[in-house]
Write a structure and sequence with these properties.
Chain lengths: ~675, ~170
């Protein structure tokens, strides 16, 4: 049971770390923003509380110290420095390690832990000395709050958890441990409520504790320990004395002396009830509650399941509609129509649930740009526009790597060093703009830098040197740029560990093509480079044109369809050059029955669907055009992985399967097997 | 192979291809279907019969006769599809195997299983877990993972290109 909660904690902690990272990045841009410091402090505090509660003590320790520093900043006793931010970033990276290996079994991780702790300690000490020089008074105060304090208070705490506290995964013993860390504590457990064995419920807590604690900290520090369980227990904290009572010896007497009502005893008495603490007292829980209302976490497998079920529903609904059409029972028709309406709405809703804003991966890039530009001693800023643009979550996941590649290229090769930039009359700070926007059923993502641009001549000579083109080859600008997408091509003069190994743009292109997307590159020397990625909104549904060849249904992606024509059979078969004149223009065509090795027909009239293939019009001869169809794409599976013509299958209303054509790959294949390259005809 | 025999229940499902009887461990068989409309995928190997709609998911179907180098026949009322769970490396996937007729589930103990003959068989011995003799008839226990995992399909395809004596 504990494990389950730990998994939950890790998930939450990752979220918190991401939030921290984001906030810190903005803080870095705007060091004076108090609200950001406040947020860092709050999130750090939550992280601290959670990590010590779930047994991640090392993480708790680091967060504790960081929280202290940010507390100082919050109170205006310290400025936000670059050093502090970089230590915080390092700590965040360290937290990620700690989450997978909380007890640091790995030696290097343990060493890293030491280093992080040491850096933080140094920073805290700096904080103290800084204040010393700043202000005598503050110094005095800090000393009271913080270090070597003479004043010790003794508190009497009764901690009475509700019986079902264990159900939420809280281990009261951790809280007691935490209390003991505050100072010298004497803990007595009261066992009188434990029932006899026959009525004993294993998941219930029957014990309450009485604690005498001598500490330098004030009552709020003690309350903080119970901050996360205040709803689940009764806590009574009394201040017994403003000096240290030698707990072990005098306390028993003190307890008996209590009824004699020493005026000090009741002075700090306070019963903390759940209703009392709300709002400003506890910003972290308030934030958590707000989030609870606006969104919930769902495992992505559950979404996939939902998506599959909706696809099945859509398919079944198509069947119902078909059936109601065939059997004209008025009531059935109206039911079928209703179901059609509802399932369409349900489908649209489900698709929108599976859409994720691009923002979710942008954070990673902000961090990358920051770290990498620092490493290369370049001053680069990443500006994002349209981060709220949404894409299918599976696309977003596969998009991260290609985008990283592109950004690395821009930082490493695109943006010049500051001196060069100034000499060329540009601002010293390089700028990368990442812009996302919708265009029809596609999403465009543009990454442009204001760097040196790509020297076409350089590409050309490189390509000749690598033997990719001959020295006298004539290439257009676009064709030259296309060379960049060939495997093993890199124009970088030297290989850095960032990029330049020549595995870049070809990987980008391949990954994007896998997502049914396209990549374009434009570049002007000394002005910059712009890479545009065009992606479909979702991977799982496409608008298609349903056609039939022999007994098989096929779906042609509608986006590629140009026009449909009829033609006489004799115009199409046994032609030497496979060209047909349509609308006064000669169009090359493929007779699909022949290409698919099916028997030829003797229809006198044939149907041609003209599609766009690499800016050219190509005809596909099929038996019949049936109509538009929304195809829910399903993979053909492992056994067909070598099948290039078909990108997937979809289920039709009558339960049969239609195959979705992968037009680009299909025509490429046809061209390879064709002895005469018909597309070379101009 | 021994490990598997220990962990898998010793129940087998027997089926026929032509006159020969084979058996598959029931742990591998998910269900048995009648032959619905199967959509042929163009330009795929001959033994790939096509894909069918199994309650909303796409199931590839292999014509087991062709895969084993037998001649093709037309489907009869007895022809059916065994939906199998095939493990390949670390992945599992589901496929349909078209067989002439499915017979029965029977139980056998380990000591009744005899090793496959290494010569005189037109089936590669690595595809066969063992042989069982019942009522004067030999049943070949198939190693389904090996028979149907993709790599093996290639070798079978290659052997199909050779003239077969079947």
């Amino acid at each position: 049971m504990m494990d389950q909660f730990q998994a939950k904690f890790i998930e939450e902690a990752n979220d918190l770390i991401a939030t921290l990272e984001k906030t810190l990045l903005s803080l870095e841009q705007n060091t004076g923003d108090k609200s950001l410091v406040e947020k860092v402090f709050r999130v750090m505090h939550t992280l601290k509380g959670n990590s010590s509660m779930f047994g991640f003590e090392k993480m708790g320790a680091v967060t504790h110290h960081l929280e202290t520093i940010y507390d100082f900043i919050r109170e205006g006793k310290r400025p936000v420095t670059k050093e502090l931010l970089s230590i915080t970033f390092t700590s965040l990276d360290h937290f990620k390690v700690l989450l997978t290996d909380p007890h640091l079994t790995n030696a290097t991780a343990a060493l890293a832990h030491e280093q992080v702790m040491e850096q933080i300690h140094r920073l805290i000490n700096q904080a103290d000395t800084a204040q010393l020089s700043q202000n005598e008074l503050t110094e005095q105060k800090t000393e009271n709050d913080n270090s070597a304090k003479a004043v010790q208070n003794t508190y009497h705490i009764i901690f009475q958890p509700h019986a079902d506290i264990l159900i939420n995964g809280t281990n009261p013993l951790y809280l007691l441990d935490e209390l003991s860390n505050l100072g010298e504590a004497k803990v007595t457990a009261h066992l009188k409520d434990i029932p006899t064995l026959d009525s004993f419920a294993i998941a219930k807590c029957y014990i309450y504790w009485e604690i005498y604690l001598t500490t330098q900290l004030d009552i709020n520090a003690i309350k903080d320990v119970f901050i996360f369980v205040e709803d689940e227990c009764e806590i009574k904290i009394e201040e017994l004395a403003t000096n240290s009572l030698s707990i072990n010896n005098t306390l028993p007497n003190y307890t008996t002396a209590k009824p004699s009502a020493n005026n000090k005893i009741n002075a700090g008495e306070q019963v903390v009830t759940s209703s009392k603490k709300k709002g400003e007292d506890e910003p972290t829980s308030a934030v958590a509650k707000e989030q609870l209302v606006s969104s919930i976490r769902v495992a992505s497998e559950k979404l996939d399941d939902l998506m599959n079920l909706v696809s099945e529903l859509v398919t079944t609904q198509a069947r119902l509609s078909l059936f109601s059409e065939q059997n004209s029972i008025p009531e059935l028709v109206s039911i079928a129509e209703n179901i059609e309406k509802i399932s369409r709405q349900l489908r649209d809703n489900t698709f929108s649930i599976c859409l994720v804003p691009l923002e979710t991966i942008l954070l990673r890039f902000q961090r990358l740009v920051r770290d990498l530009s620092a490493e290369l001693h370049k001053d680069i800023i990443l500006v994002t526009e349209g981060a709220e643009t949404e894409l299918d979550k599976s696309i977003i996941e596969s998009l991260a790597d290609p985008l990283l590649h592109i950004l690395r290229n821009s930082i490493d090769h695109g943006i010049e060093p500051a001196e060069v930039r100034i000499k060329n009359g540009k601002p010293a700070q390089g700028k990368i703009l990442l812009k996302a926007f919708y265009s029809g059923t596609n999403v465009h993502i543009q990454i442009s830098d204001d760097g040196g641009g790509i020297n076409l001549q350089k590409i050309r000579s490189k390509a000749i040197a690598k033997g990719l083109i001959t020295a006298d080859a004539h290439l257009s600008e676009a064709e030259t740029i296309d060379l960049l997408f060939l495997p093993g091509f890199s124009t970088a003069d030297q290989i850095t560990d960032v990029s330049g190994r020549g595995v870049g743009m070809d990987v980008v292109k391949r990954k994007i093509t896998e997502l049914r997307g396209e990549v374009f590159l434009q570049s002007k020397v000394n002005i910059g480079t712009t890479i545009t990625i065009k992606l479909p909104l979702t991977l799982s549904i496409i608008d298609g044109l349903l056609v039939k060849i022999e007994n098989t249904h096929f779906v042609v992606p509608l986006a590629l369809v140009d026009k449909c024509y009829e033609a006489e059979h004799t115009q199409l078969v046994d032609k030497f050059n496979n060209l047909i004149t349509l609308d006064g223009e000669k169009v090359p065509f493929f007779y699909l029955r022949k290409e698919f090795n099916m028997s030829l027909t003797n229809h006198t009239i044939e149907q041609i669907v003209v599609i766009k293939y690499e800016e050219k019009r190509v005809g596909l001869v099929i038996d019949a055009v049936i109509g538009e169809y929304q195809a829910v794409l399903k993979p053909l599976g492992k056994l067909y992985k070598n099948q290039d013509h078909i990108s997937g299958a979809t289920i039709l209303g009558d339960g049969t399967i239609a195959l979705v054509m992968d037009i680009n790959k299909m025509i490429n294949q046809f061209l390879k097997s064709e002895t005469v390259n018909i597309l070379s005809y101009e | 192979m021994n490990n598997e025999q220990v962990t898998i229940a010793q129940s087998y499902l027997s089926f026929k291809l032509g006159e020969e009887v084979f058996a598959a461990s029931v742990a591998k068989v998910i269900e048995i279907l009648e032959v619905p409309k199967i959509t042929k995928v163009p330009k795929s190997p001959l033994y790939m019969r096509g894909v069918l709609n199994l309650r909303g998911s796409v199931l590839p179907v292999i014509d087991t006769r062709l895969k084993f180098g037998m001649t093709a026949t037309t489907d009869t009322v007895n022809t059916c599809i065994m939906v199998l769970n095939i493990q390949m490396d670390t992945e599992t996937f589901i496929l349909g195997a078209l067989v002439d007729t499915v017979q029965e589930v029977f139980e056998i103990s380990d000591d009744e299983i005899k090793p496959a003959p290494s010569i005189g068989s037109k089936y590669k011995s690595e595809f066969i877990e063992g042989m069982v003799k019942t009522d004067e008839q030999f049943i070949m226990l198939l190693h389904l993972d090996k028979v149907f995992s993709s790599d093996e399909l290639v070798t079978v395809k290659e052997s199909l290109a050779l003239p077969t004596i079947a």
